[in-house]
Design a protein that fits this description.
The protein has 2 helices and 8 strands, in the order βαββββαβββ. Helix 1 runs antiparallel to helix 2. The two termini are about 20 Å apart.
Amino acid sequence: MSSAAANTRATIVPALRYRQAKAAIGFLCEGLGFQRHAVYEDNNGAVVHAELSFGNGLVMLGPVAPTEFGQNMRQPDEIGMKETQSPYLVVADADAVYRSAKAAGFAIVRDIRDEDYGGRGFTCRDPEGHLWSVGTYDPWTVMPKG
């Protein structure tokens, strides 16, 4: 079977929703090192869609809204601060990002450490409750088993 993936930089792009999308753009850029790729606002200056880059990866974010898509999602604070998925950021220096995330107000939920499987990393929760895992482990450089 041939791959259904498009020939593009990143073929998986997480999408997250935030109540305070402008603030989220700020703390993701400041705390984790994202860059603004595109930010679209309505006539009142509210963010309706944003794309933030991280190396060759990208996340999309938008406001919490009762849209057809939004009706199928819940925010972490609505479900006991739980998540069903967590983006993982591959970084060159996990300790530097750890310090930056803490300074930007991210709550550390799994402290920085050397991992048994290789790499060094941590997990944090952004100010709206989304989990982010950050580390130097690069799954693309490991030979797959099986």
